[in-house]
Every structure is written in structure tokens, then in C-alpha cells.
Amino acid sequence: MTIKLFNTINRKKEEFIPVNKDKVTMYVCGPTVYSHPHIGNARAAVIPDILFRLLSSKYDEVVYIRNITDVDDKISEAANKSNKTVNDISSKFTKIYHANMRSLGIISPTFEPKVTDSIPAIINAIQNILDLGYAYISEKHVLFDTVKYKEYGQLSKKNFDEMIDGARVEIASYKKCPRDFVLWKPSDSTMPGWDSPWGIGRPGWHIECTSMIKEIIGKESTLDIHGGGNDLIFPHHENEIAQGNCMSSAKYCNYWFHNGIVLVDKKKMSKSLGNVILIEDLLKNHSPITIRLALLSAHYRQPLNWTDRTITDSHTLITKYRSSIGNIEVTEKPKQTDNEILDILSDDLNTPEAITYLSKLSRYAKNNTQDAKKLINAALFLGINLLDKSQSTKVEQVDEDLINKLILERNESRSQGNYKKADEIRDKLVAMRVKIKDLDGKTVWEYISN
To answer: What is the pTM of this model?
Structure first.
């Protein structure tokens, strides 16, 4: 089985070959814990979870690292607003994040370092970069000197002006060059701070990940895979590469793996628009496996446009899969996963194609025990346990606009002689617990509750 991944740094799909043939190292940027996890956070965890499962099926050992950022100005702001400590806020939302991710069937990483537990390693890494001449001290700040690192920009492929426009930092007086970034910054009484050779302060965002990676895999080791949202390509991951390559003789990372953004009705999620969808809110009305399947419905490199139909279609599929397997009894931990699902996912984690494969199996599963077993096991590999009764599909809220839209599409299909599509829409409505009747040229419907 050959695994191919799109490598962002080379802008092409490549065969994955780890540094060590028996061991894979993988790091994914985890959450900044200052608020409730939303569907964007969930996608950023579900996609690497699929990769972790795939890698684990082939290699003897997979070291999966996902950090917790529990030092950040946003956390401090949340603490000040609620009259809580930074630790109160970060501890609360770390627990909520863990609970939400467990609900979605996400396997815990091998290591989950916190920034607050890694301060000594971060300080040592900064001192190392200073000693090697790639950083400087200015106005109580320690900054990375991007001019000294000649390959800066190799990941994002941005020119100087684009870097300045795209950076999430101010152009401050203490910088030699506007694109230089902070490794350590001073803290006042309202911010968390640690003693360091440069005074009481806290680490910059970018050095946190680099330090935690090196502390776990070794300073002179190369990370196989680094993942995260594509919004992190610049400046975060660009800066990680600069730091990592300068503090070690080993290449920082070989494969860069990025997932697309989650949109809501084609708009970015934001508090100002009031369109932020929280995982805990979804779990009130939808089963975890319904949510998980919805998060896998678009290819990971593409944006996922979340609409009412996204979750409804996922609900329809889960209902269809469960109906097709009936009461069949199959081991929940198969000794060998169906090779076809492995082959599909090995081609750059093609989850839409994997879902198509599940749907194909479900068409024959009612009358074929082998296909039913394949369906159960293939779904299980995706983290979807069709046999777990505790994951029963919850009743969705009735969306009358969507129901009427589907009925209109069905009637149009019938009038055009496309009876196959009309039947598919009827099946979807049935899965939504909507019963329809055609009476005197008009279609009426009713919702069938439990």
C-alpha cells in the first residue's frame, strides 16, 4: 500500500516515505483554548485523525503529537473579561475540547504537550537560536532575524510585500525588518509571565510548536508530517520552518499537510456574523457519527461549505447505512480492514470517494452478508461505528424550507422523466422521517416522530 499526500511545500502530491521505515512522526497544531470548539476546530482534528488511522494501519509505530496552546493573548483577554485566571479559562476549555473530540470518535494523540509545561524547552530553543546568530534582542523582545535565513518564504512562496500584508503582527519599532517575528516578549502584571534571561515574559506563538516538536522527537531529528489549517501556512508554519532549520542540522519537516477552511453558507465563521457553529450545539440535535461524516464529506484540501443540507445529507446516509445492515452481528474490531477503503484513503485521504464506497456497499448489504461486513468495517475505519447503539441517530429539527425544496426538486425530476432522481429524493425524505403523498397533482407531507 503506497500512501500519497499533497505536500504543500512542493505544491504536488507525493509518495509518503518516512525517515524511519518502521516509525512515523506527525505533528498537528492543536487548539488555542479560550472558547468553545466550533466545526472548524473539529475538522482540523478529524482530518488528521483519519491520517493517523491510515498511517497506523501500515507502520509499526506512529508518534502523533497535537499540542494545546494555553498561553495566548486571547486567553488572557477572556480571563480578564470574566474575572478569572488564565489557568481557569485554559483548563475549562481544554476539558471541553477533549470531551467534544471524544464524542466525535477522535483518537487521542500519542503526545499532547501544553505550552505552560514546555517553557524551559522554549527558553532553551530561543537561546540556541540566539547563540547561532539567527535572533536578536530589542526593547526586551527576542526576535527572529528573517534576513539571516536566506530560504525564508519557501513554504508560502510569498514575496516580501505579501509577507508584510499577510502577517498577523504589527510592524513594531523594535524590529530590524517588518517581517521579523517575536520569539519572546515581555509580560506586564495582566499577562502570564516566566523568568528568562531576557526578563519576565512569555513565548511568541511560533516558537511554541517548534520547541515542543523538538523536545519530543529530538533536536537533530526530522519530523515526517506537519499538519494544520491552510490559514496557518503563513506566517505560522513559515516561521516554524525558519526556526526549526536554524536551530538544528536536521531538516525541520519533510511533508506539509493542510486542510481547507470551514465556511457557513459560503461565509467565514465570525462572531460578528453570528454564524459560528459550536460542536456542543450540534451534539444536542445530531449524533456524533452524523457530525463526523459531515466533516468528512468534502476533500480535506477543499473548503467545506457547511449548510443545513450538509448535516441533513449526512443524517440520511447514516440512516441508510444502518438500515442496510439490519441486525447483523460483526466484530467491532476486525483483524483486517477492507483493502479497498485503505486504497481510497491512501490517495491523499479521498474521504468523499470513501463515502461513495460506503454507499455502494450499502446498496448490496441487505442481501449480502459479506458486503454488510465490509460496510461495517470500512465505516469503522473512518471512525463511524454503525453498530454502537449509543450512537443512535437523533431526531433532527424539522426544516420546512428544506423539505419543501426537496419536494419541488422531486416533482421537477418526475415531470422531466427522471424517475431515478425522484426516487432518490423520496428516499432522502424518508430518511428525514418525512412521509409524502401525491394527491390530485399536489404533494403533501407529514413528519413522523419517534
So the answer is: 0.86
